[in-house]
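Suppose a classmate hands you a notebook page containing two proteins, each written out with its sequence and a corresponding row of structure tokens. How would you begin to make sense of it? This section walks through that situation. The first entry is reproduced here exactly as it would appear on such a page.
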Amino acid sequence: MKKTKTLFAIVILLLSSALHGVAENDSVLYIRGVMDVTHIDGDFEVQSDSKIDRHIASAINALDVRKAIESGDTTDLFHIPLDSDVIELMHDGLIVPLGLSDALSADVLEMTPAVKEALFDNGVLYAVPSVMLAKVWKGEIEIPETYTEFLNYTDSLAIAWGDESIWSKRDYVNALLETFFSESIRNNGKIDFYSEAFVELLKILKKVRLPLELNSDCIAVINPAEIIDLGDAFTGALLKNTGKTGDLGTNSKDDPQWMLPPTVMKEAEPSVPVRMYVYIVNVHAQNIDKALQYLEYVVSHRDSGDEGLLKPDNAEAVFDSESNVWSVTEKKLMAYKENYLPYLDMRMHPLFSFSAKQEGGAYFRMFEIVMEYVEGNAELDICQSRLEHIMEDFK
């Protein structure tokens, strides 16, 4: 599953495709959006005696969907990232409420509260999840609790992406803003750009000299984008070679080395950002019944790893005898439930939406303003005033 999710993430980042109209055909279910990571389309075609026409559009978002539906596109299902822009589609009557399906409602009601709340709006179910990507940090040593403390160790602790490209100030500023907004929203909803923690971190970011590459003084490299995977391919290989079965804790040597991300404000609860992909049904769909039938098939054939992330209270260790790997290990499931589940953040506030982050959006403009300050091209008080003005307009 880990390789599959990695491939999925790469495809999401690299592929893109434009929406286009489709011809009406009652025997064909038209799906547009990100790839089918579970590869169940073929099985569904056999089971339902129908054909699926899936158009891959990995850069798709809710704004693209809005444009398509408003132009009369009759695509049946869209498969897109979940954010607050998706809720606006429902508010405007552009997608079909899913509560008529008992199977879909029962599936979502079993999910962990943070996920479940993101899929309902005013008691109405409007989306069905396919894949959940919960992002944590990963490293061999314990990291400081706050970004302010972390920035005191930039010579010995490096934050680097999977390709080992080290974090730049732009990466830090993006992490700072997302974390600060999340903490403020969860705390009391008030975003205070004059708060001591925010100001102190901005000043440190302005002064700090970040290394451009990993150096000999670095004692640990931290991956800030580790996707929680409950499976363990190593354990499966071990059992295959030894013929042993039994305690997952003793059989698995694969320590996940997950860590909670730092906070901006001291004493604030950390957050584990979640990116989730969901199916929604077009109000102009020609095959709504078939679309619901497909979604019911999706939820009954969801990957066991994703089931564990979405429904941890009902999850247990799962061994896939066909591929000789553990899809879910007891060790990782318990780590997820005890240490990371309480901090899941679906990032459903409008500030985290695609519309806010695209060029000209509120988040995009605030990011550029903070960058001006940390790069020495603006005074702090001017920066704070401009940030506050954008937030007032955004509300």
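The notebook's second entry, a different protein, reads as follows.
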Amino acid sequence: MTKAAELTDLRLPPGVRVGDLLQGRADPTALLPEDPAMPDSVRDYLANGRPSGGLHG
């Protein structure tokens, strides 16, 4: 695992280690941004379960 960690050039958040990710001991959601870039229509659909823009009333 040490060799794998040395070979990767990842920008991991503090406290997340390559070895833990490879062995399934780290939560991969820790690598995701808090507020990912996406169109407003997608964000609205995720929040409300329906498209925005009055397509369905």
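A careful reader of the second entry would note: The first helix runs from residue 2 to 7.
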